[in-house]
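User: For documentation purposes, I need each entry recorded in a consistent format: the amino acid sequence on its own, followed directly by the corresponding structure tokens. There are two entries in this batch. Please keep commentary to a minimum and don't merge the entries.

Assistant: Recorded as requested. Entry 1:
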Amino acid sequence: MSVTDSPGHRTSIGLSNRLSNVASVGARLSGVAVALIVIAFLTDPTPTKDLPGVGLPVTLPVSQPDLGHSVASYFVGMWLFEFTFPLLLLAASDRFELAEPWQRRLLVGLPVAYMTTLLAYCSLVYVPLVSPAPLGPAATAVCYAFCATGAPIWGTVTAAVAGLGALAWVSAERDWARQGWLAVLFGVLSLPLGVPAVYWGYRRVRRKTV
């Protein structure tokens, strides 16, 4: 399907059949991930030390083994969500044929906002209050390095990647010449969360060169 840049025109992002199938499976698995996380809250008053003090006052009389800082279903659910959330964004953009401004907001802006929020959480809550551990789930490789070690250098690198993402987002909103390349670079440095940004940026670069 052809894609135009008309701001109000609803278009598909043009996923190939194979990528569309992968995104569809990822979207369904993200639902499974959310269900596993909900189960953790329903079965344990403190499902994870990653969120100090967060839990339900009453839970079901069921116990789960611990994995790392969390009960098993929370641990598995969060790791599954971090890898399937990017595919959910691709599937949503393709399924609902969003107008171009909403495509870039969903595929570039939302990953940037998510990464920035996680950076703030790790810097202000997780690293100061929870002992860093290599099993903790993370949305990007640099976030994982920061949360697994607590090393300030990785916090700086993560902040730099998030800042690059903000620049990519601004360039996309203002239609700068290098917007596609900036989105691709941010996406690669923020994998797996950055998959949607890589795809959006790649399409922009191709469109400029065709």
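Entry 2:
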Amino acid sequence: MAINPNHIDGLEALTELFIALGFFDMALPYANKLLEVDPLSANNHYTLAHIHYFQGLFDKALENVDYALTLNPELELAHHLKCFCLIWLNKKQQFQEFIRNTSLIEEKNLLFRLVNEKHSDVPHQIIEKWSRLSKDKTMLVPYDVFILANSHHTATAFSLLKEMIDQRRGQIINYRQEPFLRPLHKINGFTDLHRSNLSSADITSTKKDEEKATANVLDKDQIKTLKDKLLSYFKEEEPFLNPQLNLNVVAQVLELNNNKISFLINQAFDVNFNDFVNSYRLKHFKLIALDANNSHLTILGLAYDSGFNSKTVFNTYFKKIEGVTPRAWMKANSL
């Protein structure tokens, strides 16, 4: 890349690496560079859509993947990604029209119901059908694992996922980021499925110098307006439930650079970005933890359902704010 910054294969490799590791803010510059180099590549637009999808920006992802399919209607992975965006956006009519006369219609409809209608009954016949598939006839996208993960068959889903990871199957390379697999995060052993030795601190930032400093500091009126917009976004969209939420995602929604978002939160709320987001996650945890319908879930499972993606971060933040451990708080507040 130092010799040729426009090297397509190098740009694609770095983008995919950062996506797999969940470093979306680092993947975006390379994805955008790919579009600069080849703006008519359907695959490049699909890649950008995939980043937005993993960030939980399903509207943006849908816009990008639609353009990818305009450039290449035969791009099968883009077709599935559009299905997923429509499922998460609960666009039932558009979804039904899009999947008409396509393969795996039964799986697609079942996944839509599981996510949007909380229909958790997976027909035994379809599970038998999947079990009969030979290894060379597996699905390009693992609908079986996604469906089982969002039903009462999470243990089976976890077992299948582990098997695919052990086999180094390409379909699940981004399993940690995949929204359909979030129910598996609470299962004991999920965090041990695979560990990367690479940290974002090991990577030199590619951001331009002007992004490193906050130019044109926000005035009081701007802070008030943006504060209201930020609060509305967190109330209506609940982005804090996305464990991959980061500064870059919020910056894109408010159409500001990362440093201005950080400055805004610091000035308006006197906290940093992580504490701001975790305050919402903690409030959500306390709400669902006292719900009798969730009594079967573990404390860690409730934390993951609230957007926390690390046991250590959850316990540390909880003790910092509440002054007691989560278990002690649960005991004191249980009826």
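Summary note for entry 2:
The CA atoms of residues 43 and 68 lie 7 Å apart.
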